[in-house]
Amino acid sequence: MRQEVLERIKYVKTCVMARELCLLVRTNRAVLEPKDVQDVCRHISSLCKEEGCVEPSELCQKAAAAVGSRDEEKYLERKMTELCPNMTAVAGYLIGAKLLAYAGSTKRLAELPSSTIQLLGAEKALFRHITRNSLPPKYGVLHEHPMIARARKQDHGKVARLLADKISIASRVDYFKGAFIGDKLKEEIEKRFPR
After folding, report:
1. Which residue from 98, 140, 150 is spatially nearest to 115, judged by alpha carbons?
2. I want to staple 86 with a disulfide (CB 3.0 to 4.6 A). Which of 59, 106, 178, 182 is the partner?
3. What is the reported pLDDT for 180?
4. Within this chain, do residues 179 and 115 fall inside the same structural domain, yes or no?
5. What's the number of domains the chain is made of?
6. How many CA atoms lie within 13 A of 76 on its CB side?
7. More confident of the two residues 4 and 130
């Protein structure tokens, strides 16, 4: 099965490259006219001449973009595990990366108190609360964490506060290159709010 998927990905990338070559030949016909490229162009255009046919290159480009985004996610996961293993264990690589982006750096994130970490990503709601006396935000980026999603509605704030606490500890340990304590921190969270 894995080999079939790899072959399909290779086919999609080949279709995109063939389409780009076809456009290059059409625009610069005098400069570049290899026989293989012309054959590929004829094949693609014959596929698209049927009425109501979606151009294959559009589908191929969308599929190639999806493959590329999957590669980017793997890269992000690898980098977060390498740079911030404790925070990745507690928050996950996506939430950890978003928190790092909002904070600006690992040093800045390590310096932030847990109450600020809890509200990272909820700046608009916080300023709305200050200016218009609306309800204060309970959490920012942390609302995407699975612990908050499965907690009861009235416990969302408590879970967010506990998560922010543990993420704050994890980010400090990561910044100062301490030992791996991510599993211990995650166990403490699950002990306090079991499934």
Report:
1. 140
2. 182
3. 94
4. yes
5. 2
6. 15
7. 130
**Residue 121 lies inside a defined structural domain of this protein:** yes
pTM: 0.65
Q: Do residues 125 and 102 make contact, with C-beta atoms less than 8 angstroms apart?
A: no
Residues 102 and 184 in one domain: yes
- Residue 105 corresponds to which tokens in the numbers above? 């750096």
Tell the residue number behind the tokens 């009861």, with chain if given.
Answer: 152
Neighbours of 42 (CB within 10 A): 11
In 3D, which of 107, 106, 99 has the Cα closest to residue 82? 106
Nearest to 36 by CA among 26, 21, 20: 21
CB 47 within 8 A of CB 53: yes
Amino acid residing at 143: H
Query: What's the whole-number mean pLDDT along residues 22-35?
Result: 51
Residue 77 in any domain: the answer is no
In which domain, by residue range, is 53 found?
Answer: 2-71
Task: Tell me which residue of 191, 189, 186, 194 sits closest to 88, measured CA to CA.
Answer: 186
Question: Which pair of structure tokens corresponds to residue 183?
Answer: 């599993």
Contact in structure between 140 and 119 (CB atoms under 8 Å): yes
**Banded model confidence at residue 43, pLDDT cuts 50, 70, 90:** low
Tokens (6 digits) for 108:
């800045």
Half-sphere exposure of residue 70, counting CA atoms within 13 Å on the CB side? 7
Per-residue confidence at 53, pLDDT binned at 50, 70, 90? Answer: very low
